[in-house]
Amino acid sequence: MTVEFSGDFSDQRINFNLKNLGEINYYKVQPTKVDEESIFIIIKDNLLAGISYGSLDDWSDDSRFVEIVVPENVIAADFFYFLTKELDKAGYELNVGYEMTIAKESIEVYNEYLQKLLPLLNLCGVKLFKAKKKTSKARHKYIKSLADVPFSINYKGSKATVYWVKRNEFIVKAGATLVENAPLTKAGVIGFAGKFGLRLREEHAEQIKNDTLIQDVKLRSVNEVGTFLYFAGTNSWLQLKSPEGKTLHELTVVK
């Protein structure tokens, strides 16, 4: 497959304008201006060192940056999440602590788009054919008998009662208090988890008043619960506690 492009370059940046596929920029130094819709892959010592959406923390002088500017038919936040999952499959340990649901049709579009970008990303040092590493990530099993157990959360000012009623359904009860402001990165901007949390709150805006739930809210995962209530930042399986003080992790982890 051949993709035509135009572009320009300087001693610090190479630009690839891919027309209807967006743009890719390769930076030898950290860019000073970052678009909030841009996806950055950070390369250090010829290895993938990180991935960021809409912001960049301070990186060392020997870091390189690959910026993906998606076309109009691609939702940047969704493609960023899709890309983190693809990198995870390739064996990179990115510590992605949030979950999103992306429509099957969108996944097909994003996968086709990524396949078109891969030759250029490979040239920039981003490789997706590493062997999958064995993971020590804990797995949890839904237990029907826990459906009536009121799990409590008390973290960073957020307090809530949560029920795990179905495998992919959590109920956050009315009266829950939400952390007011999304945390900022070192660069002074809202990171991806914060943006995702704000997006969840927008979807349930009618059920929130003054950072308090006035109606029950249905969410799809433990990570969504944590991101919705306090913008993630911790392992939420350890924050949900039964009346006896046991964490949801203790009660459901597969050993």
Entry summary:
With 255 residues, this protein is an alpha+beta fold. Helices cover 24% and strands 23% of the residues. The longest helix is centred in the middle third of the chain and has 20 residues, at 104-123.
> How does the major sheet shape up?
6 strands, antiparallel
Into how many domains do the coordinates divide?
Answer: 2
Order of helices and strands: EEEEEEHHEEEHEEEHH
DSSP, total strands: 12
Task: Provide the gyration radius in Å.
Answer: 20 Å
Termini separation (Å)? Answer: 46 Å
Give the low-pLDDT segments: none
User: Beta-sheet strand percentage?
Assistant: 15-25%
Mean pLDDT: 87
Amount of helix: 10-25%
Give the strand order, joined by hyphens, for the main sheet: 1-2-3-6-4-5
Structure classification: alpha+beta
Q: Can you tell me the overall shape?
A: elongated
Number of helices: 5
Task: Set out the fold topology.
Layout: E1 6-9, E2 13-17, E3 23-27, E4 39-44, E5 47-53, E6 63-69, H1 76-89, H2 104-123, E7 151-155, E8 158-166, E9 169-172, H3 192-203, E10 208-209, E11 212-213, E12 217-219, H4 222-230, H5 248-252
Antiparallel strand pairs: 1-2, 2-3, 3-6, 4-5, 4-6, 7-8, 8-9, 9-12, 10-11
